[in-house]
UniProtKB/TrEMBL annotation:
Residues 362-504 form the RagB/SusD domain. This is RagB/SusD family nutrient uptake outer membrane protein. The keyword Signal applies. Residues 72-227 form the SusD-like N-terminal domain. InterPro entries: SusD-like_N, SusD_RagB_dom, TPR-like_helical_dom_sf. It is found in: Cell outer membrane. One of its GO terms (cellular component) is cell outer membrane. The keyword Flavoprotein does not apply. Belongs to the SusD family. Transmembrane segments: none annotated.
Length: 504
């Protein structure tokens, strides 16, 4: 995405205060006031790109990474961490997997804080774009993207934290930033409002520059929201508007960095391998086994090692065993390593394509793909009842596509079809941060995760604990309050109106 770095610097220097105090209005030469900045299409282009920048932090943008995969996948039965005897410095990341949640933990604060940075930047654009002297097409594009990203950020927040502060106006004083929690119902209402408006004014994928969201992305988000709310007919209506995309014939190529923003990708977080500019992705390295040198793996150079920041988000033995042996997606998703301390250790291959300068990788993160749209349509149609053949057709469009090597399913029963759709999501969308939220929204989280936790406690070595090491007594104890994460303590300390989730 062009101008990423320049924009990051400019957006970071913007001063959004409009106070009248002389001390506050006499800005130093390193700062640009909002009043003088939002004037031209070029200004809005820079602000728009800056709005996307925090997404890289949310999905993973550092060696000691706290990417969204920790809460979206490692919280579930899909993945877990490889216990590292030589590095015990990232316990808060392990806590996510172990259901020992730390309100001061990095993963929680990274998600919460960066979503609100996106919201704040979106609010600044929305406060000024309608009155700006720019072309109508540019106005609609920048406004639509701001509405989408604000809706997207709030959707992420409300699913993981429940009631959260709803702020849709750009604050002009410090006091206006002190806001209490808003009911999830009201937050969802705003998400739907924003997503609908975004869908109505954003350009199509054929008209939008690569890397920026489209009306298809907005309709996908809207359909996802309705799916969570179990408004099945509304979900179907929204998802039927997602056009201009198609499945790729080769599953592995969907995620290959040489094939970014391909026809299947509806919304992906943009990264660029660079050892100086902070745009590299590292999550592919984080997911490798901890090695003395990553050069033993294809595509990686010899290096002093990745043992300080690897060993995360490893496929569980249960997921490995669950895959159909004939499913071609398995080989594209999971690889195995034997050597050093490992014996046939599975790791995520989907995001492992090597790098020229270790550990600066070029992987983008897939947020929405057309395959998920088809599976959401299958679910929305099936839940309306009496339309099993239509739902099955959407499911088979993914399951029996040439890239899977699998035959068509033949299912007529609504309950069986429901289970088949969720299983297909687990395979097709493995490691893409969907599993935990799927378990929660379908009411399966406690049942599935209590069984999973019991397995880990009964045989920790099967879940990558070294011989002689066992989880602590308070690990892997899940009850209903763990379906939401704690509000970060740092936010509660600075906001007297903010309260903590129950039982944290």
């Amino acid at each position: 995405m062009k101008q990423y770095i320049l924009t990051s610097l400019i957006i970071g220097l913007l001063c959004f205060s409009s106070c009248n105090d002389d001390y506050l209005t006499n800005l130093d030469v390193t700062k640009v006031s909002a009043e003088s900045f939002y004037q031209t299409e070029s200004d809005f282009e820079l602000a728009n790109v800056g709005m996307y920048v925090p997404l890289r932090s949310i999905y993973g943008n550092g060696l000691a990474d706290y990417g969204a995969w920790a809460m979206g996948e490692m919280r579930s039965d899909n993945t877990c961490f490889m216990y590292n005897m030589n590095n015990r410095g990232y316990a808060d990341r392990e806590y996510i997997d172990q259901f020992i949640d730390d309100a001061n933990g990095g993963a929680i604060s990274t998600k919460y804080d960066n979503n609100y940075i996106i919201i704040g930047r979106a609010n600044q654009i929305l406060a000024r774009v309608d009155d700006a002297d720019i072309s109508e097409s540019a106005r609609n594009n920048y406004k639509g993207q701001a509405l989408f990203l604000r809706a997207f950020a709030y959707f992420d927040l409300v699913q993981y934290f429940g009631d959260v502060p709803l702020v849709i106006e750009a604050p002009t004083t410090y006091d206006e930033t002190i806001v209490g929690r808003t009911s999830a119902t009201a937050v969802y209402e705003q998400i739907i409002k924003d997503a609908k408006e975004a869908a109505s004014i954003l350009p199509s994928v054929s008209e939008q520059a690569a890397g920026y969201v489209t009306n298809g992305a907005a309709y996908t988000l809207l359909g996802n929201v309705y799916l969570v709310l179990e408004e099945w007919s509304n979900a179907e209506d929204a998802l039927l508007n997602v056009t201009g995309y198609s499945l790729l014939d080769d599953y592995a190529s969907v995620f290959n960095p040489s094939n970014k923003n391909n026809n299947e990708m509806i919304f992906e977080v943009q990264y660029a391998a660079d050892d100086t500019k902070g745009t590299s992705s590292y999550f592919g390295v984080n997911f490798l086994p901890s090695l003395s040198s990553p050069g033993v793996l294809d595509g990686y150079p010899d290096n002093s090692g990745n043992n300080q920041y690897a060993g995360w988000n490893a496929p569980t033995p249960d997921l490995v065993a669950l895959f159909d042996e004939n499913d071609l997606r398995f080989e594209a998703s999971i690889a195995f390593f034997t050597g050093e301390i490992y014996e046939n250790q599975p790791y995520v291959k989907k995001f492992s394509h090597g790098c020229e300068i270790f550990p600066h990788c070029d992987e983008d993160w897939p947020v929405y793909r057309y395959a998920e749209v088809l599976l959401m349509l299958a679910e929305a149609v099936n839940e309306q009842g009496g339309r099993s053949s239509e739902a099955l057709a959407y499911l088979n469009a993914v399951h029996a596509h040439s890239r899977t090597g699998l035959s068509e399913l033949a299912i007529a029963d609504q309950s069986e079809l429901r289970d088949a759709i969720m299983l297909e999501r687990q395979f097709e969308l493995a490691f893409e941060n969907k599993r935990w939220l799927d378990l929660v929204r379908t009411g399966k989280a406690l049942e599935v995760m209590q069984a999973h936790c019991a397995k880990v406690l009964a045989n920790p070595q099967a879940y990558y604990y070294p011989a002689g090491v066992s989880p602590t007594a308070d690990s892997y104890q899940i009850d209903a309050h763990r379906l939401l994460f704690p509000i970060p303590d740092g936010q509660i300390r600075i906001n007297p109106l903010l309260t903590q989730n129950d039982d944290y």
